UniProtKB/TrEMBL annotation:
<dbReference type="GO" id="GO:0016747">
    <property type="term" value="F:acyltransferase activity, transferring groups other than amino-acyl groups"/>
</dbReference>
<dbReference type="InterPro" id="IPR053144">
    <property type="entry name" value="Acetyltransferase_Butenolide"/>
</dbReference>
<feature type="domain" description="N-acetyltransferase">
    <location>
        <begin position="2"/>
        <end position="137"/>
    </location>
</feature>
<dbReference type="InterPro" id="IPR000182">
    <property type="entry name" value="GNAT_dom"/>
</dbReference>
<keyword id="KW-0808">Transferase</keyword>
<dbReference type="InterPro" id="IPR016181">
    <property type="entry name" value="Acyl_CoA_acyltransferase"/>
</dbReference>
<protein>
    <submittedName>
        <fullName>Acetyltransferase (GNAT) domain-containing protein</fullName>
    </submittedName>
</protein>
<dbReference type="Pfam" id="PF13673">
    <property type="entry name" value="Acetyltransf_10"/>
</dbReference>
Length: 137
């Protein structure tokens, strides 16, 4: 049986491992330990799914709990996908937020259509400035 936890401690190794076992590991700097530690330690909302002592899913967010919540990572172990774990992680994330707080994410390419099916509204105005880029004058 899958157990869900809110803001339970997660070791960096566990986080990296679940990213590797999901398709999200391909798009995260899992070989950069310092970055991964920062990602885990500086998130202020972490909802996790556990099968016994094994971390099988994670929803990692940064939020003010009132206006906006950025769901930065939603990962489910490939062996546990299509069981509703990802959706439950999002439901539990939303339950931690104020009733008017928006849940915002950037979809993985393979999951883009999924979010519309479960109720998200697609927004065409998202912009990204990579860390190695500077604002132009």
């Amino acid at each position: 049986m899958i157990r869900y936890k809110v803001n339970a401690p997660v070791a960096v190794e566990q986080f990296i491992d679940v990213l590797r076992r999901s398709t999200l590991g391909e798009r995260r700097p899992i070989d950069d330990r310092e970055c991964m530690e920062g990602m885990v330690n500086n998130s202020n909302l972490l909802v996790t799914a556990w099968d016994g002592d094994k971390l099988v899913g994670v929803a990692r967010s940064m939020t003010d709990f009132h206006y906006a919540c950025y769901l930065s990572d939603l990962a489910v172990d490939q062996d546990y996908q299509r069981q509703g774990i990802g959706k439950q992680l999002q439901i539990l994330t939303q339950q931690q937020l104020g009733r008017h707080c928006k849940l915002i994410l950037i979809a993985a390419p393979a999951a883009n259509a999924y979010y519309g099916r479960i109720g998200y509204t697609q927004m065409p105005r998202c912009w990204v400035l990579d860390g190695d880029q500077s604002l132009k004058s």
